[in-house]
């Protein structure tokens, strides 16, 4: 059966052939907010961006039936990106812009900074964190359950083993890093050993939804380990069933890429399960679901996961688009005229004022922040308020970048080449991969949950149209502009950052330099500190735990 005939079959009923163009539900109650955060996910690794290599039908359904955020910007690495999300402030304001937190490093988001869950808790929300934290845990007060989350089930450090849930530091120190914390205590958790982490986190998120008191709004942050590598060197220890994956992804040549595809597949299934749970609980009708990546994929080098940022230049840790132009989409029945692409600039810092406003708060009460309230853009399609953003300043290497309108200034970008992974089937147009499976998108748990909630889902022709519009089409050239000095890129016509136009627009360069200088005036030097030997798990029952009494 072809895609069009399937789409209008009895399985999904004829009403699926049109998308609901008006807000399905207008509730007087604050919306539930569910944020699903992927770790080190490449631009080319969700199929709604145009690649057929790794199908993501559940994520795609969320995107097509809601909004695709085409120009969503994040920070180059995980700790700075999560800091921006939690605080609504550029990490340069707190010294968190540098290298991600090491295990046992005594630093974190300053305690005098109020975080997103604390703000939402003040509005009456039940606040839950499942998965990754990675913004500090040196003392009890820095842990999630003491910073606004009612409960925390997950890990403190940058990643863990998918099955043993251990973390091994760069110096070779290994400890268990799995916790079930609440406001009354910090509790190492050993019960899920030998259970695949993606499934364990999803099980917990589903349980939270099922047991939630619907009279109270829910904020659930599901911060997945996937598809971050666990650095174990054994593919079978990063996926559920590697033998089955080799058959499913037989058209992928590289073992590392097959492993990555398995991690992304499990991540996609997690999204479907969460959407299904929200529908069954009858709270999806008044929920906002956000799916996004914290940064681009590390295509090679340290903790490489063989993700693909194609066709964007760069990889995690760089200041190029491949690191900071992140995957993002949002679904909610509260959105008017869904099924559209938002071209406006959106930044990780924007989520604090955006979600606070959507929850009924006044974003003017949030103090000095860098984020802007994007809820009018998301809900009603108003023109976005953000016209510029700071990509980052790394004062240790004098690297900096910023965007105003269509132009991006990058200083000391280095890497005068693509420095990324194309994917196994990019050069031949994905010819060896199966064609895009509309049937799978239409029949996915995400689509069924949306259909049961709103009575309509996006039609196949609209899916193909959105997918075609979203695909970035600029094949990287043999040579790139060398940005060891200063480069100016016109992202509107050159999203792959191939050509330096700084000599043509010196006034634009000066404007962007002045913009960056303004932020340099509020920059706090990076707070990275040596690992404290007292943090060694051998002093804490074999567990990475808070070790300071401050």
Q: Please state the structural category.
A: alpha/beta
Order of SSEs = HEHEHHEEEEEHEHHEHEEEHHEEEHHHEH
Q: How large is the radius of gyration? A: 22 Å
Average pLDDT, rounded to a whole number, is 92
Indicate the overall shape. globular
Q: Distance between termini?
A: 64 Å
Return residue spans where pLDDT drops below 50 for at least 5 consecutive residues: 1-26
Subunit arrangement of the protein: single chain
The biggest beta sheet reads: 10 strands, mixed
Q: Which percent range fits the helix content? A: 25-40%
Strand share of the residues?
Answer: 15-25%
Tally of alpha and pi helices: 14
Based on DSSP secondary structure assignment, what is the total number of beta strands? Answer: 16
Summarize the structure.
With about 550 residues, this protein is of the alpha/beta class.
Can you lay out the helices and strands and say which pair or pack?
Blueprint: H1 3-7, E1 32-38, H2 57-65, E2 67-73, H3 78-87, H4 116-122, E3 126-132, E4 151-155, E5 166-168, E6 174-176, E7 179-182, H5 197-211, E8 218-223, H6 242-248, H7 255-280, E9 287-293, H8 321-324, E10 325-326, E11 328-331, E12 340-347, H9 351-358, H10 375-380, E13 388-394, E14 399-404, E15 407-411, H11 438-443, H12 445-454, H13 460-470, E16 486-490, H14 506-520
Parallel strand pairs: 1-8, 1-9, 2-12, 3-4, 3-8
Antiparallel strand pairs: 2-10, 2-11, 4-7, 5-6, 9-11, 13-14, 14-15, 15-16
Helix pairs in contact: 2-12, 5-7, 7-12
């Amino acid at each position: 059966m072809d895609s069009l005939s399937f789409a209008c079959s009895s399985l999904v009923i004829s009403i699926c052939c049109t998308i609901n163009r008006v807000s399905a539900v207008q509730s007087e109650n604050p919306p539930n907010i569910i944020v699903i955060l992927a770790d080190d996910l490449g631009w080319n690794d969700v199929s709604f961006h145009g690649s057929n290599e790794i199908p993501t039908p559940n994520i795609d359904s969320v995107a097509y039936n809601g909004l695709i955020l085409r120009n969503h910007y994040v920070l180059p690495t995980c700790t700075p990106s999560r800091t921006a999300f939690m605080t609504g402030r550029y990490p340069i304001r707190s010294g968190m812009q540098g290298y991600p937190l090491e295990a046992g490093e005594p630093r974190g988001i300053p305690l005098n900074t109020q975080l997103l869950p604390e703000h939402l808790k003040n509005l009456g929300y039940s606040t839950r964190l499942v998965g990754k934290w990675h913004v500090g845990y040196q003392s009890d007060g820095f842990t999630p359950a003491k910073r606004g989350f009612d409960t925390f089930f997950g890990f403190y450090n940058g990643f863990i083993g998918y099955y043993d849930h251990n973390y091994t530091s760069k110096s070779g120190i290994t400890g268990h890093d799995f916790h079930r914390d609440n406001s009354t205590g910090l509790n190492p958790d050993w019960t899920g050993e030998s259970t695949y982490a993606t499934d364990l986190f999803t099980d917990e998120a589903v349980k939270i939804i099922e047991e939630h008191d619907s009279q109270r709004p829910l904020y659930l942050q599901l911060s997945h380990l996937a598809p971050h590598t666990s650095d174990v060197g054994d593919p079978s220890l990063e996926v559920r069933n590697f033998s089955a994956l080799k058959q499913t992804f037989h058209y992928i040549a590289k073992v590392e890429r097959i492993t990555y595809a398995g991690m992304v597949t499990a991540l996609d299934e997690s999204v479907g399960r969460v959407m299904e749970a929200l529908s069954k609980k009858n709270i999806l009708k008044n929920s906002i679901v956000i799916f996004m990546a914290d940064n681009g994929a590390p295509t090679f080098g340290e903790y490489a996961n063989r993700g693909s940022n194609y066709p964007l230049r760069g990889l995690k840790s760089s200041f190029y688009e491949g690191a900071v132009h992140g995957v993002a989409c949002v679904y909610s029945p509260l959105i008017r005229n869904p099924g559209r692409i938002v071209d406006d600039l959106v930044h990780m810092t924007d989520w604090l004022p955006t979600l606070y406003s959507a929850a009924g708060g006044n974003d003017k009460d949030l103090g000095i922040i860098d984020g802007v309230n994007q809820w009018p853009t998301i809900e009603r399609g108003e023109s976005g308020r953000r016209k510029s953003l700071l990509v980052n300043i790394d004062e240790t290497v004098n690297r900096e970048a910023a965007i105003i309108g269509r132009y991006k200034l990058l200083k000391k970008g280095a890497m005068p080449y693509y420095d990324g992974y194309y994917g196994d089937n990019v050069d031949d147009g994905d010819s060896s991969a199966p064609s895009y499976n509309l049937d799978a998108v239409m029949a996915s748990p995400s689509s069924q949950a949306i259909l049961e909630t709103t009575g309509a889902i996006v039609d196949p022709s609209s899916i193909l149209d959105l997918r075609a519009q979203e695909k970035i089409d600029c094949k990287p050239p043999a040579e790139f502009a060398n940005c060891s000095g200063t480069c100016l890129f016109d992202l509107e016509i050159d999203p792959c950052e191939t050509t330096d136009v700084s000599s043509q627009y010196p006034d634009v360069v000066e404007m962007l330099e002045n913009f960056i200088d303004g932020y340099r005036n509020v920059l706090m030097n990076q707070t990275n500190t040596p690992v404290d030997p007292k943090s060694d798990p051998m002093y804490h029952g074999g567990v990475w735990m808070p070790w300071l009494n401050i």
